[in-house]
Design goal:
The protein has six helices and eleven strands. The protein has about 210 residues and is α+β, with helices and mostly antiparallel strands. The strands form two sheets. Strands 3, 4, 5, 6, 7, 8, 9 and 10 form an eight-stranded antiparallel beta sheet that branches. Strand 9 and strand 10 form a beta hairpin.
């Protein structure tokens, strides 16, 4: 075991609390556009620290190392409860390479977010072993409902789907493990279990756009 350090697991789940706030009130927020038929040409590319992802046009985000004040201000407009979740990131913004979120809340005032975390690439450990052992570690705190290695375009990625209860809401994050030359990237798409299947086509389309500088 020990392939993914406990601190890295904590980082993986750090932003999932954004989906668990239930007290924000934003009645003027329009319904979220989640049309899986949207072409990727309609999407935008969000740049992080050495990494980028294409996401639907309503998403906002950036690089926490350089854009954290702007991200916090925008989340504060949506609901102060969401902005408060970024305080932990302030202590080490470089731990998260990219943060993005859909500002249009779900009917029960949840927020869908995406983040990309860089981790040290373990030497001489296969992607399958890394994924399997990470799932085993995660299973001590959340329910792992799917794990394995899949083909995404011309590259292999690890994939884990988990469920967890946060402040009375069931969340269902989708994690991808993307090997790179010098590191391994963890891309996490976090939404509620109720919205997961509706948003899944866009999550799967987004990860195909994953790009890194290394």
């Amino acid at each position: 075991m020990g392939i993914l350090k406990k601190s890295a697991i904590a980082s993986c789940l750090l932003l999932l609390t954004l989906t668990g706030c239930q007290d924000a009130i934003n009645p003027e927020t329009p319904p979220t556009s989640q049309n899986p038929a949207e072409t990727q040409s309609d999407w935008q590319t969000i740049q992080g620290e050495g990494v980028s992802l294409a996401l639907p046009p309503q998403y906002e985000g950036g690089n926490p190392s350089t854009d954290l004040d702007e991200l916090e201000a925008r989340l504060n407009e949506i609901g102060s409860e969401y902005a408060q979740q970024l305080q932990a990131i302030r202590q080490n913004p470089a731990a998260i390479a990219l943060l993005a979120f859909d500002p249009n809340l779900s009917p029960n005032e949840q927020i869908t977010n995406v983040n990309v975390i860089p981790v040290e690439k373990p030497p001489e450990v296969s992607l399958a072993d890394f994924t399997r052992q990470t799932a085993a570690q995660l299973s001590t705190g959340v329910e792992v409902i799917e794990q394995g290695v899949i083909q995404v375009g011309d590259r292999e990625m690890g994939r884990i789907v988990v469920q967890d209860e946060v402040n009375g809401t069931t969340i269902q994050p989708l994690m991808y493990f993307v090997p790179d030359t010098e590191r391994l990237w963890i891309a996490i798409y976090a939404t509620t279990a109720a919205q997961f299947e509706q948003r899944l086509p866009n999550f799967e389309k987004s990860i195909k756009s994953f790009s890194s500088e290394s």
